[in-house]
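Appendix C. Worked example: LysR family transcriptional regulator
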Amino acid sequence: MDQKDWHLIHELYKNKNITKTAEKLFVSQPSISYRLKRIEQDLGVSLFFKTKKGIGFTSEGDYLAQQARDMIQSYQQMKDQLLNMQNEVSGTLRIGASSNYAQYLLPQMLKAFSDQYENVRFQVRTGWSTQILDLLQNDVVHVGILRSDFSWPGIKLLLKEEQLALISKTKLKIESLPMQPYLSYRTDTSLTESIKSWWNDRFEDPPYTEMDLDRFETCKEMVKQGLGYSIAPMISLSEKDQLYIKPLHFKNKKPVIRRTWLLASEEASRLAVVERFIQFIQTMELDHK
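Step 2, the predicted output written as structure tokens:
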């Protein structure tokens, strides 16, 4: 078995479906089926079986999938260490970033870092903070940029703090919100809990939710049309939106804060490319404060 086989087993184990795995790996379904049969023949055991939804793994298949994950990680760590032994900063920097940070801040940051270190390439995964933490814990990424205050045994740096804000087409009084149509959107559990914590501090009744949307950008467009109000982190807002924006406070006058953290393992932070990126991102955030 080679690296392609390890990646095939790993993706198939995640998807449990040959069609999805073929799309992910950009190969044909027949080639995957052929390769799986050859792997079973070479190892002399039954690894897979068909299910109504796709593919299942035998106990031997489960073990092989775990080995595939370990082999991929071991190979990547070996490549990282070899590149780290060179004098110049080079290699692939694997980054996991929360969706909001990835949309509004990360592109400019990666461009600036790339201009300074031309021999560095990027692999970027985006998602909710819980998903990014999972990628970190499984060594899929070197660095995670998260919007939740998770406990972490390695490097943990506070990058920025921002306030949550009420957004609406026209000016609204806080006291009138329970009577106004609220537009919610799917997001990190931590942001949902922060919004809920502020609301419960200010009101006894729940908000009148008129729309439940899948993305914040969709929600913002609805707000721009005067269809209701919402609550959002300041990172996702700008003057160009032409919205009424009111930063939120608890009853005790404390601002409702959302924090952004950079996390990395101690081992990853010793890689030259990771060390330079951490230094770079800290400098950039300080310059923007």
